[in-house]
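Exercise 7. Predict the joint structure of the components listed below.
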Amino acid sequence: MTVKKLVSEDSKSVVIAIEGRFDFSLHQKFRESYSSDNISGSRFCLELSKATYMDSSALGMILLLKDHAEKLSGEVVVKNPSESVKKILEIAQIHKLMTIEG
Amino acid sequence: MFNFHIITTIAGVVLALLIGVNTLFIQLPAISVVATLLIIVIFFLLFREHQQKFNATVEAGSKNELIDAELVQTTFTQMSLLISKQVVIVETELERVTSLVRDAVGGISESFKYLQNLTADQQTMISTIISNNKNIGDDSNTTLESFVHDSSKTLEDFVGVIITTSKQSLESMGYTDEMVKQLDGIFNLLSQVENIASQTNLLALNAAIEAARAGDAGRGFSVVANEVRSLSVNSTELNNDIRNEISLAQSIIDNLRKSVELMASADMTSTLEAKDKVTVMVEHVGNVNKETNNVVEGLAALAPQIIDTVATGVRSLQFEDLTCQALASLKDNLVAIESLSEQLTLFDKNKGNCAEQLLIIQENCQALIEQTTHADQTRGVSQSSMEEGEVDLF
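Solution:
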């Protein structure tokens, strides 16, 4: 249950990696991982390859991240979700709102 | 008739001769054999002579009254009786066949009617199935298909609501976190205020000491110093009260956090299962619909075939008409046979010239033959095949 953050040199690309359960307990760390990035046109990559579980609060967090990115005219890309996580993303129609890779 | 009579007489004589000769020469087989042969030869010669004579008699029959008129009349009467009897039997049988055919055709016709009713019922049932398939019976024309589709849509909306709620909750959680930070700031400020209060307290204490040292002159100042001190104590108490209140607010915020967490965190597993079930249901309904459509199409294709088959059956029922016509024409033939019988009874031995009477009978027979031939040509049954023409039963 951790949130890791990696920012590229030009600060335009932010990778947020989730490990373990992606649920309400992460909301503060998750918000902190992007709230300070205010560079226009930022690209936020949500790396989910190590996320084992996801509940509705995770989906809410992803939508908040999207709102933040849209304010900066940037984008959000979800990367490498596991099968079960991918199913939840599809049920929530997340794939219609942003790109899901892998 | 006549030659048979003579032949039997001759045969009797020959037999008697044979027996007599054989008894005579019973001891002499050779003579017996020769005698038998001799008698047979004589008989053969006699028979041949008689045959020739008889033929001559028949040829001359119209001219010579060689025929026994009474015998002819008796024979003719017998024949007439026989014919009449046969005619009666044939007539009865004809009636029977006609009635059998009518009964059978009536039965078949009834069963065709019944078959048609059954087909109509079947058609109604199929229509019911189709309409049931299209409408589950409420006012908004809900079909099973649209229901499943709506369910799927409802589930999507439900998921949407859950996620929106989570998002809003998390957003308010952010505001709450900011508020907690603000409260921390207030705590900081409170510490500063507390510092000021303790410094004021210390200052008031110093002032009181200085006032005591001044003696009577400082008595008034001592009162002021005590008042300032009690103000600092009051201020510290107030400070503590504020701190307690804010701590209470913080614990309330903790409760709020838990409550928001509950609101924001919905497990999606059951939703996933529901979604899977709906997907399966959509597929199932699709299959059922397809199956039903196939069956209904098949049934629809059967309907004209049934109608065709019934039409063929109905057309085949013409055989009743054809058969009855044939039977009716047989009655004409019976009438002809009856008049033949009558002709035979016309012969009367007392009427005189037998040959003349026979000739008249012959002429009448000829007339009957012509009549029958004519009737046969213009026979009512002009239709010889059931495939021709159309007959509607209903």
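Discussion. Chain B is about 85% helix and 0% strand.
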